[in-house]
């Protein structure tokens, strides 16, 4: 579970298991991502985020190794104090890593809030998100800081988007270092 601030998400990965025939892909593993809100049932917001998360995971998952199987990633929101999508992305990457699935690269999520005056805040709180002119979330790969996914809410100029991306790419380095440290700790026990 990863928690920037007080947002935390628990990730569980199941599989590779035999895929239901309707879902099986002949050339690679089928990935299903389920996002469970803290309370209540998943809604439109969760469904659209599941799509973004799945596409991001699929971009790095070397699923060819397990054709006709299914992998299910369940993300349970424990608390949401802001920057939820990036927290989900980080939890997803850690879960894939933990499961020992073959990945072309690691990825992380970074959320930027663009303040009304144009300043950029990283990892905004829920309150900062409400006051922001735009909220941008990026999924960034560890190889060449490539952008795997970008999601924008609100309005910003192309230039502002590029500034947010640059800030997110710098922040990503810190998260990748955190991944490496936690993996190292786990294997040195």
UniProtKB/TrEMBL annotation:
Protein localization: Cytoplasm; Nucleus, Nucleolus
User: Boundaries of each Exoribonuclease phosphorolytic domain copy?
Assistant: 5-102, 106-170
One annotated Gene Ontology cellular component of this protein: nucleolus
The record's section on InterPro entries has: ExoRNase_PH_dom1 (IPR001247), ExoRNase_PH_dom2 (IPR015847), ExoRNase_PH_dom2_sf (IPR036345), PNPase/RNase_PH_dom_sf (IPR027408), Ribosomal_Su5_D2-typ_SF (IPR020568), RNase_PH (IPR050080)
Q: Name one GO biological process term.
A: U4 snRNA 3'-end processing
Show which residues constitute the signal peptide. Answer: none
Question: Where does the UniProt entry say this protein principally localizes?
Answer: cytoplasm
Pfam families reported in the protein's UniProt record: RNase_PH, RNase_PH_C
**Record's SUPFAM superfamilies?**
Ribonuclease PH domain 2-like, Ribosomal protein S5 domain 2-like
Which GO molecular function terms does the record list? DNA binding; RNA binding
Q: Which UniProt keywords apply?
A: Cytoplasm, DNA-binding, Exosome, Nucleus, Phosphoprotein, rRNA processing
Q: According to the lineage, what is the superkingdom?
A: Eukaryota
Report the PANTHER family cross-referenced here.
EXOSOME COMPLEX COMPONENT, EXOSOME COMPLEX COMPONENT RRP46
Q: Please give the family membership noted in the entry.
A: Belongs to the RNase PH family.
Assembly, per entry: Homodimer. Component of the RNA exosome core complex (Exo-9), composed of EXOSC1, EXOSC2, EXOSC3, EXOSC4, EXOSC5, EXOSC6, EXOSC7, EXOSC8 and EXOSC9; within the complex interacts with EXOSC3, EXOSC8, and EXOSC9. The catalytically inactive RNA exosome core complex (Exo-9) associates with the catalytic subunit EXOSC10/RRP6. Exo-9 may associate with DIS3 to form the nucleolar exosome complex, or DIS3L to form the cytoplasmic exosome complex.
Protein name, UniProt field: Exosome complex component RRP46
């Amino acid at each position: 579970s990863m928690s920037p601030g007080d947002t935390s998400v628990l990730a569980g990965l199941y599989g590779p298991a035999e895929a239901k025939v309707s879902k099986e892909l002949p050339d690679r593993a089928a990935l299903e991502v389920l996002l469970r809100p803290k309370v209540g049932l998943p809604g439109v917001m969760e469904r659209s985020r599941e799509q973004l998360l799945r596409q991001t995971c699929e971009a790095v998952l070397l699923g060819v190794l397990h054709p006709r199987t299914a992998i299910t990633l369940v993300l349970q929101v424990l608390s949401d104090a802001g920057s939820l999508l990036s927290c989900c992305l980080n939890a997803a990457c850690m879960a894939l890593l933990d499961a020992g699935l073959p990945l072309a690269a690691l990825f992380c999520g970074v959320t930027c809030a663009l303040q009304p005056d144009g300043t950029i805040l990283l990892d905004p709180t829920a309150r900062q998100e409400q006051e922001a002119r735009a909220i941008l979330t990026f999924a960034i790969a560890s190889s060449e800081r490539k952008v795997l996914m970008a999601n924008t809410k609100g309005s910003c100029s192309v230039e502002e988007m590029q500034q947010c991306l640059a800030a997110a790419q710098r922040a990503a380095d810190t998260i990748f270092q955190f991944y490496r440290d936690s993996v190292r700790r786990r294997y040195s026990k």
